[in-house]
């Protein structure tokens, strides 16, 4: 399979170079005797023939080029199954979506716990680490005893 693919690549490159040369060799319409008025010379000297040898070579080269392009695409798909950039991007997007789902679930669980804690103590400040210890906010903290110091 690799030899077939290599030979099609070789034909493809050779046909590409051939097409470049053939197209560069062709004259545009009205390019002959452009000094005398360009396209008006065709009326005076006769119209250019519809199919020249270079035109036929260009069409043949184009057909071979398209055939080799499609053949390479089909054979490359069979040889490199699963090595597509699109497939790798889709797999990475799926992993990222799973990570986002896990993060969202964790954030949702934390949010639900915070809501449960605030429902138990309506005066609690969200994110306060002492909220669980001091649930009665109406009573002040115990003042330190006087006279029990180092003096």
Question: What is the beta-strand fraction?
Answer: under 5%
Contiguous runs where pLDDT drops below 50 for at least 5 residues? none
Radius of gyration: 40 Å
Total of DSSP H or I helical runs spanning 4+ residues: 4
Give the integer mean of the pLDDT values: 72
Helix content: 55-70%
Describe this structure in words.
It is built from 4 helices and no strands. The protein has 151 residues and is mostly helical. The chain has a domain of 54 residues. The radius of gyration is 40 Å and the shape is elongated.
Keywords:
151 residues; mainly alpha; 4 helices; elongated
Question: What does the secondary structure layout of this molecule look like, with pairings?
Answer:
Elements: H1 2-25, H2 40-45, H3 53-79, H4 85-120
Helix pairs in contact: 1-3
What does this entry show, briefly?
The protein has 151 residues and is an all-alpha fold.
